[in-house]
TrEMBL record, chain B:
Pfam families: BPD_transp_2. The chain crosses the membrane at residues 33-50, 62-80, 87-105, 111-133, 140-164, 184-209, 229-248, 260-278, 285-304, 310-329. Signal peptide: none annotated. GO terms for cellular component: plasma membrane. InterPro entries: ABC_transp_permease. It comes from the Bacteria. GO terms for molecular function: transmembrane transporter activity. It is found in: Cell membrane. Coiled coil: none annotated. Keywords: Cell inner membrane, Cell membrane, Membrane, Transmembrane, Transmembrane helix, Transport. This is Monosaccharide ABC transporter membrane protein, CUT2 family. It comes from Chelativorans sp. (strain BNC1). It is a multi-pass membrane protein.
Amino acid sequence: MTDFVQLIGIEKHFGGIAALKSVDFTVKSGEVHALIGENGAGKSTLMGVLSGNVIPTAGTISVEGCVRRFSTPGDAIAAGIAMIHQELVLAPDLTVAENIFMNRMPRLIDWAKLRRDAAQILDRLGFEIDPGATIGDLPLAQRQIVEIAKALSLNARLIIFDEPTAVLGPSDARRLLNLIRSLRSEGVAIVYISHRLDEVADIADRVTVLNDGSLIATRAAKDVTIEEMVRLMVGRPISALFGEKRTSPFGAEIFRVESLTAGPLVQDLSFGVRAGEIVGLGGLIGSGRTETARAIFGADKRESGRIFIDGSQVKIRDPRDAVKAGIGLVPEDRRGQGVVIDASIRINTTMTSLRRFSPAGIIKRTFERRFVGEKIAALKVKSAGIDAPVQSLSGGNQQKVVIGKWVDVASKVIILDEPTRGVDVGAKSEIYAIIRRLADEGRAVLLISSDHQELFGLCDRVLVMGRGRIRSELLPGEFDEERLLSASLAIEPIQTTVRTDQNPAG
Amino acid sequence: MTPLQNVQHFRSNAIKTERHRQGVKFLSFTRRYGTLVIFVLLVAAAAYISTDFLTLRNVMNLLRQASTTIIMAIGMLFVVLTRGIDLSIGSVLAVGGVIAALLAPEWGLPASIAVALVAGLICGLACGTLIAYLRLPPFVITLAMMTVARGSAFILTGGQPIMLNDAASGLSAFAGGYIGPVPYPVLLMAAIVLLGTFVLMFTSFGRLVKAIGSNEEAVRLSGIRTQRYIVAVYVISGFMAALAGVLITGRTGVGAPNVGVGFELQVIAAVVIGGASLMGGRGDALNTVLGALILAIIGNIMNLSNVPGYTQQVIMGAVIVAAVILQKIQNQKMS
């Protein structure tokens, strides 16, 4: 086998931050090369370079021995490189056939021929999908197949899969892996990015590990165990990241949700969290965790449900009511919902508590500056000062600002939705320490995370959601990835009542 | 690398960073004061072209003419900061103007002006409520208000201009009067500009208006009822438009239903030349004033040098495009 693609000495800097540090990466035709690493390790940036979405600061790309320069995704596609994105990039209102031939529709469309050609490609993949169906009507698994068909129709000779099974059920995932195997046997080069290391061990020929933008190792898959992959990814034993769990008893149940229903993904949820307790919400993407957080916080409308703080019911119609009740939300989408990205650290930090600093509507600047200065020092936000725009911070430090704006305001409950997504390892452990401190100060903490290590490492209890319901509750002795996934995928509720009477020591 | 090369390498790098730093300083200077630089250059050019330009009389005249545009531009600035737009102000101006003229004979001056201003507030309240609570696009809603308000102005007057009678002589006196060399409307305009600057720089309202324009969802999820702020900016804009209408009625002595057609575009142009971003979140009151003055000076120069009216329009359009391109370049270099 020969190298189809060689990336040599790839570097990428975003502002002052190095996202990739001199990374070498090669893919042979007819192999599956897995790329693993934590969130923020640089996988997406490296694949961005390979697919023409990111222009590297330094380094060379060669395809079949010829040096290429990709300045747009179109250049990469022309060189035979296609990427199946995590968020699929299909036009939802167009048909399957139109999407497959999107970028080379003839001026005058022969609809019959278009569908015939599309059907032919889909057949080759072994899937029966109607070329005339509208993309928006297809389930996610089929849309992914359409993406692959599109890549093949472009004569892709290297296909990048970015977390393809994250959104699939087990049987769809198995079919997808089989499809990838058959593509491999046809001589297609494949880059496979996944957090599911069992899949990686199953399908990959070679494994490359990135950590914090650097290449850690490239190994033959058969020579490396899953445990070893984890150690290479994290760079230190996992347990050291999370700190010590609480051993003293929790306080009273200060936060309770009763029969919360809001749309199809939040169905009749009831649970409580005690003071000082960190409760995890686990489950697959799309199981309703984010929707639950938003419904509690009043960010989305809810159909029914009561929320209790300190035993008495509070009326929450919008986020303002939630804030008044002492509830804070660190949203999933940091840039879109967590921060005003072009405003300064100072403005973002005091946004939740502006009234304190402006008794008559006029902001007391000195007071505000002192407050923010102390806050960012306590949270170890690395910045050029409190007037630096949040944009200039790394992801981890941006997240600390988002948490910082809630520290004083969310005096009772803080809900964190994927707080360490896209955050480097160093900042991660700092954020974990902050979360622990928030709980130790007597708050009820609700933590949503798709990172199972994180859930198990931080939480005192994990509620597993699946299709809008709580499917199971796991206690520390039961923390097990397989258990969590199978509970989330269960169709029938395993358990809808939730225990709250046990002690953490137990 | 030999040690010597190393040192040289290090030095040249240090020089580069220093240059880079100076470059950034220069750019942040032009971003802050870019409009001011254009303004100063224009004043110099105008003074060179016409010896009449820098006379006290011409300057005060220019300021008085620009005062209504500036007053409305301050209102528009608040709207634009929230990523909105208010196309109705030219028509709301007419409503304010005709109400003041209509009611003055019977109700007296203070009451008629108050009613005119309240009418402006109501127009803004209607637009703001629809935009904030029903999430309708500002462009469409204020476009609708533009025709509704214009129609109302014609209905109120029966299509005829209303002459100000003697009961309203105080208004004419105010709009045409001076304190020393400074016309009253210019003083009023200055007070509004200062107030606008203060609100945007030192109050939580101003800060949140800008933040909403940058990322409304983040502000909402911080526990702020963003809709109220959005309603408020349209109310401010409506109020300023009605105030401008009252002033124009005073200055011309007529409440005319067809006054102010197209003013909204002039005002938006002033705001944009002043460096405010139509994408929200960025802009300030003083630069908006400069934006309005730049337009006024260009008009004034062309008048002084006898450029025909139609040609003036073409040149104005070109100036707006040039100003926006300039800002775009500055912003790209900044990021």
